[in-house]
Design goal:
single chain; Urease, subunit C, domain 1; 2 domains; nine-stranded mixed beta sheet; 12 helices; 21 strands; globular; binds N-(aminocarbonyl)-beta-alanine; binds zinc ion
Amino acid sequence: MRRGSRMEDKGSLLIRGGTVVTATGRVPADVLVRSGRIDAVGPDLGVGEADVDRVIDASGCWVMPGGIDTHTHLAHPIGRLGVTTADDFYTGTVAGAFGGVTTIIDFGLQEQGGTLTDARDHRFGVIDPDAIIDFGFHLIVTDVNDGVLAEMGDLIRSGFPSFKVYMTYGDKKIGDDDLILLLEVAGEHGGLIYAHCENDCAVTHLIERHLAEGKTGPAYHATSRPPEVEAEATNRAIMLAELAGAPICIAHVTSSGAARHVADARARGVAVAAETCPQYLVLDSSVYDPGAGCEVAKFVCSPPMREHSHVDALWDALADGSIQQVSSDHAPFRYEGQKTGGCDNFTQIPNGLPGIETRLPIVFTEGVASGRLTPERFVELTATAPARLFGLTEKGRIEPGADADLIVVDPEREVEITADVLHSDVDYSPYEGMRLKGFPTWTISRGDVIIDNGVLTAERGRGRQVERIPIDPANLP
Ligand code: URP
Ligand code: ZN
Ligand code: ZN
């Protein structure tokens, strides 16, 4: 698999006059980039225009690590419904770059009866020709057997340390018996299980009951997956991880109950980390208004948005450290022709929302600009913690030697959201009409300026697979 080279000669870049914001502080400083890496950071580097290939004037701007989005579903097939997410690895990573993302970790799906190694090789072939930013991928384990358990150690040691599991979702679901086995093997070799937590029996039962009662419209998606099903499965996954002595990451926490289980487990020393996503921080269950008809399908994702008290609990959990990262769970489907396939039956609506491009701006606007989060916490949640959690050694920080993955953001510049100003291949945004700050003026990936004052300058396929190391449970964010 192709990887970035340290010695490549890519020229030099000076980002001058900005405020460098990292997870640990902010300081007026210049950043010097050479050969794709950060060379020096400081207030007076003694470097003039004649000494470098390019200077970016970052006066009035914040210079931050490029965003790392560890939960995207690009070109992701939903076999049950015969649809694929609307962004491929070109449109999806272009959208990410416009939103300040310089690394994604997507997913490679194990076929029933197939191996994880085949899933890895196939997925690399899909991503590599298209991605414009750097990438990794978690392997989704759907069929646990002796061969899979035997493969995991080598995969972990060769740069694939994280494995996604679904505790619900039809043929992708694995049971508790298999989850324990995966946790044990992952724990033994430095792997991390990344779990979608909903109680499958309860979800199946509630869906059947809704349909039997004629509650078939899109709005009923939410009441078929209430917060209790998430909290129960979250607690179960954490307890099984504790039993197995293995670390675990809880995907897309949406509810106060699930957040409380994570916080309690961390307080008793369990190696558990958790993420939430922007949709759960700025939308609530009022989007599921039965009077809005099929439009509600635009907001169908799993888990669904919750009542407003849960939104407040998630912001508290981000501020107090009990949730450690914000990812997008970017799973884009077009409204016309994809979401509308389930206007009369919510089980036929593909689950997921577009969000790779708006993730940083939403957390910036509703977190930093509104005073809920410090700028340093913003960087931690969107770049530094994701790098640490998923074993990305070269990313997520502004220090000499690190990859020069940077964003330059004018903190006052505001954009009104419509589908047209965004770059995903979808016909709506869940955030239409919101005014968001935090979009980058420049996005820099390994020293290349890939978004240059609003213009895309990256070539298709320039993205590279990222280096990833095994996970040390003692080092979780
Ligand atoms: O509704 C969602 N989140 N769809 C994407 C698949 C998943 O659950 O991660
Ligand atoms: Zn999920
Ligand atoms: Zn997902």
